[in-house]
UniProtKB/TrEMBL annotation:
<dbReference type="InterPro" id="IPR016040">
    <property type="entry name" value="NAD(P)-bd_dom"/>
</dbReference>
<dbReference type="InterPro" id="IPR036291">
    <property type="entry name" value="NAD(P)-bd_dom_sf"/>
</dbReference>
<feature type="domain" description="NAD(P)-binding">
    <location>
        <begin position="8"/>
        <end position="185"/>
    </location>
</feature>
<dbReference type="Pfam" id="PF13460">
    <property type="entry name" value="NAD_binding_10"/>
</dbReference>
<protein>
    <recommendedName>
        <fullName>NAD(P)-binding domain-containing protein</fullName>
    </recommendedName>
</protein>
Length: 210
């Protein structure tokens, strides 16, 4: 069993990621949360937690052995530089020191060209900078850029391209599943891609960038 650190575990998508990992036969989730009162949700399910604040020193998070990382954290627009950009960079640096095998980043459609966005430009700039930092880190990575997130049911069917050139929606459940499937070494290795709801299975779609 490999230990997977999930940054942003307490978020809506983060909880779905942790749940998928917890049911897996290959992975053991470690939920990274910012506050002590967020730990009970996970410890009640016998899921390991670790306290870590992306606005502070994150190196202590790696006191326990970590094999791979999923970054699904976000500030919900409250501190896009401190969390979405610099917090991601800190975790990338700490992951490198810890010799993790792969770093899977939850990004956003539009992060490739934030200057062209009519909305959320500051957020997309922050995501762009974090993505570029990861690409240049020397870590093995996958960068997943979904369209508009919904709370719809899981379909396990997506449309995937390095650049889709169209907008669309996708459920958080399918994004979570895509992130988890991207953890494997040979899946979407050092690839950046966009996803929306579609008619191809996640596993098959990921072969496009593997």
């Amino acid at each position: 069993m490999e230990n997977i650190l999930v940054a942003g575990a307490n978020g809506t998508t983060g909880k779905k990621i942790v749940d998928i990992l917890n049911k897996s036969q290959h992975y053991n989730p470690i939920a990274m949360v910012r506050k002590e009162d967020q730990q009970a949700y996970f410890t009640d399910q016998n899921i390991q937690t670790v306290l870590g604040d992306l606005e502070a020193d994150v190196n202590p998070v790696f006191t326990s052995p970590i094999d791979r990382v999923i970054f699904a954290a976000g500030s919900a627009g409250k501190n896009v530089i401190g969390v979405d950009q610099e917090g991601a960079k800190k975790l990338i640096d700490a992951s490198k020191k810890a010799n993790i095998k792969k770093f899977v980043m939850l990004s956003s459609m539009g992060a490739d060209k934030p200057e062209e966005a009519t909305q959320l430009q500051d957020y997309l700039k922050a995501k762009h900078n974090a993505d570029e930092y990861l690409k240049n880190s020397g870590l093995s990575y996958s960068i997943v850029r979904p369209g508009t997130l919904t709370n719809d049911s899981q379909l396990e069917m997506i449309e995937l391209e390095q650049k889709l050139n169209k907008h669309g929606e996708i459920s958080r459940a399918d994004v979570a599943q895509t992130l988890v499937q991207s953890l494997e070494d040979k899946t979407a290795a050092n690839a950046t891609f966009e996803i929306i709801k579609g008619d191809t299975s996640i596993q098959k779609a990921l072969h496009k960038v593997s």
